[in-house]
Amino acid sequence: MNHATPDVVSVDARTGEAVEVIGAESTPAEVAALCAAADAAVPALAALGVAGRAALLHDMATELEQDGETILALADRESALGLPRLTGELARTCAQLRFLADVVTEGSHLGVVIDHPDPAAVPPRPDLRRMMVPRGPVAVFGASNFPLAFSVPGGDTASALAAGCPVVVKAHPAHPATSLATYGALRRAAVRAGVPDAVSLVHGQAAGVALVTDPHIAAVAFTGSVRGGRALFDLAAARPEPIPFFGELGSVNPLVVTPAAAAERGASIAEGLLGSFTLGMGQFCTKPGLAFVPAGEHGTALQEALATRGADAPTGTLLTRSILAAYAEGVRELAAQPGVRVLAGAEPRDLAGRATPTVLRVPGAMFSEALTEECFGPVTVLVEYATEEELLALLGRLPGSLTATLHMGEGEEDLPRRVIDVVTRRTGRVVCDGYPTGVAVSWAMNHSGPYPAATDSAHTSVGAAAVQRFLRPIAYQDTPQRLLPPELRDDNPLGVPRRVDGVLAGTATSPTG
Amino acid sequence: MNHATPDVVSVDARTGEAVEVIGAESTPAEVAALCAAADAAVPALAALGVAGRAALLHDMATELEQDGETILALADRESALGLPRLTGELARTCAQLRFLADVVTEGSHLGVVIDHPDPAAVPPRPDLRRMMVPRGPVAVFGASNFPLAFSVPGGDTASALAAGCPVVVKAHPAHPATSLATYGALRRAAVRAGVPDAVSLVHGQAAGVALVTDPHIAAVAFTGSVRGGRALFDLAAARPEPIPFFGELGSVNPLVVTPAAAAERGASIAEGLLGSFTLGMGQFCTKPGLAFVPAGEHGTALQEALATRGADAPTGTLLTRSILAAYAEGVRELAAQPGVRVLAGAEPRDLAGRATPTVLRVPGAMFSEALTEECFGPVTVLVEYATEEELLALLGRLPGSLTATLHMGEGEEDLPRRVIDVVTRRTGRVVCDGYPTGVAVSWAMNHSGPYPAATDSAHTSVGAAAVQRFLRPIAYQDTPQRLLPPELRDDNPLGVPRRVDGVLAGTATSPTG
């Protein structure tokens, strides 16, 4: 054992005690070797074909389920998120692997386009066939708050593998034992598929830096803080060969209650908002951190309901002691801003090391930029607006967010439309009459948004389109059938959806098509 | 006139003489005002709808054609590219505007996906509807070598406008009068459409820097040198809010001649290669700068044919005096590398200020990284390989390229397949038995490639997919029909292609579907 290499320690989130040493931090040489092995695995992963990769993802889900009991116990110990939540998260993680397998099996993600030659075009057009190919090895940074669904076996790993890219995961230090256990399950499936280097795991902050700067790494996927994410983004951009960095960083997720909604169902919104900002002890990237409520009788009633319910909300354990410390500090900073009043919540951190849910309130006229920074944990800031114009002006000052939520009155149209117009330029998902903290895994999901919600708002980290991050196009010009990938051959042996000579296969461009 | 602001001068490329002052360089305040106006124009451009924007693009093409005679005369004076070539380029530019209008009229670029609610899903799925929306104002940097098709009215401007993004163009200093004239034509169409700020024009290097760092700019499109492009890329990445930088930088465009191809038609390949690397005096981003030819009788014959023909190739005027100086310097550096011999070409720059086509040759064993840097102008380097293994190893050492070309024998399969496997990881387009210098504008074209060919190999700057650079997704969750964009409404009033509940509209997912 190299005593120059720090231990990787698994900590019990509830007690703060170190439970076991699960290994040593990865050395630069180890990281380089794993990245080279990942690069060498690109052809083998390609050779599996879409069907083989889909089978690999299904097999990985099965392996995770087989180790479910062990994985859940470790994840609960390391995250304190509780078995019910984690059981759901494991199901989601496995469903996500299977969903992405189905997505790539259909083949539309390949974006196959075939243009037959057209000598009459200006300039004359040769035979051109375009499809998406894997970028190469992907570095994935697991997040603290979803030790399964956004960590080693999470959406980034699943979509990179689905795209055909080997993955090197940097384990999150908050749950190294969970990371190792889930990696073990994925690895068994990879070995069985004959591509053992399709997934590997590294530990330690220095290993993360080594990963992002390794010449074999072709793209990075990251979920975490603005500070950590931006530092890695900067490294990726500064490389001799810059690589794309798909980071999901910070988001305040504004929620708007129109006067009509407050009048119709203020109490129920107060209850829903409380449930949303305290879900998982506020440790969701989609937690509503700012709620715009109208001044006046109904808005005041909503505030009072939230104050009363918030004061009764239970304290809870956060993922790590450092997250707890950051929460306490963040709440104090928010509360110290001009005009901010505490509606519910005592000390943000109690003597037992648990976090206290907190509701703050500020008049719209006193709103400041300091209130737009994400504070991870169970706190939300109510912003009381006096007029519609003030509301729209305030929304126009917000940074990019993953979500923007709107509660409106029955059949209300004018104000909701104006709100949606403003937030559409600043968010990746608009939620109506609901709460943003659920993130469905589906074809239409978008989990992204203008910076700092994401480093590239054109890409989602959840849903079918997540696969696109790890693909790039290539065109083959005048290439004989015998040398084309099967997806581009005239006979389309894999039956992938295609656009041929400008026409989407199977769709009609005219009534007679 | 502010005498602190440098003049913008139009130079006759053939004489090197300044012909006229066409204005002053843009001040930082002017750039900021134009970017703010572009940002304010986003809603108006959106309000035109896809049909309105398509009409705008068609109108722009018509305006360019109406001013064609003036534009062509200016472009010929400023570029020395000659009226035949420029007449073709204007036709291509107008065809490109109309093609992209047709692309967005179809609507598939919006990537509309509708998932109806599914309470049985894990986690339960709400109603989710996803589509692409414009990123916001785009900065476009015109290229020197295509004063029309990759400049003010070029593919970047056309695809940004098609996507719904206002454009601020930084004129290339090599053709400011052409830039002003083409801008005038675009502007007339924009004014008529009621969105005068949809396109604007700035001049000067400082204005370019101001553009890339302006907070209203949401993306940058650039075609030019590695050095200039990388400097701007770094600025874009270092902003407080980083923005995507779609740069097409340098490319050596390797061309491979297999032994079988050399035996079958070496002389014709020599002729074709000469035509390709001297086309437009070698000032194409897709110019084949490296050609791998086999050792032995047929390869030697090919080399000799190229040496003979190359020696007779006419000298020509380059775009600017500084490009000529860089060409002369670049050729001298290439020729000074170990093992390099000059097969054709005397002094790269003659006394009349014209460039001399040059053919160099190096044995594969002496190949070095210094030979992989793009040298803009009519020069190509033949690399003589002794064995197939040496060829594949050499190809594996090349940086990213826009294209890779393969000349093979009739029915040849094994070596071509191995070459394609290697170059697929390093290029954006594989050309078989042809030449890379034509870039068709079509659905399947890809004009991109791993760095330094492009700063993001996932995006093309030519073809239908070029529009995608300027779009980002947004999802609407549980949003009432009355508040949805028409593309997402159940009745699909615009008839855009959509995926509904996982099924691509109009396509069958099973034989009975």
Shape of chain A: globular
Superfamily at the CATH H level of the largest domain in chain A? Aldehyde Dehydrogenase, Chain A, domain 1
Return Rg of chain A in Å. 25 Å
Distance between the first and last residues' Cα of chain A: 70 Å
CATH fold type of the largest domain in chain A: Aldehyde Dehydrogenase, Chain A, domain 1
Number of helices of chain A: 14
Q: What CATH first level of the largest domain in chain A would be assigned? A: Alpha Beta
Portion in helices of chain A: 25-40%
Percent of residues in beta strands of chain A: 15-25%
Mind summarizing the main beta sheet of chain A? 7 strands, mixed
- Please tell me the CATH architecture of the largest domain in chain A by its name: 3-Layer(aba) Sandwich
Give the tally of β-strands of chain A: 19
List low-pLDDT spans of chain A: 507-513
| Rounded average pLDDT of chain A | 95
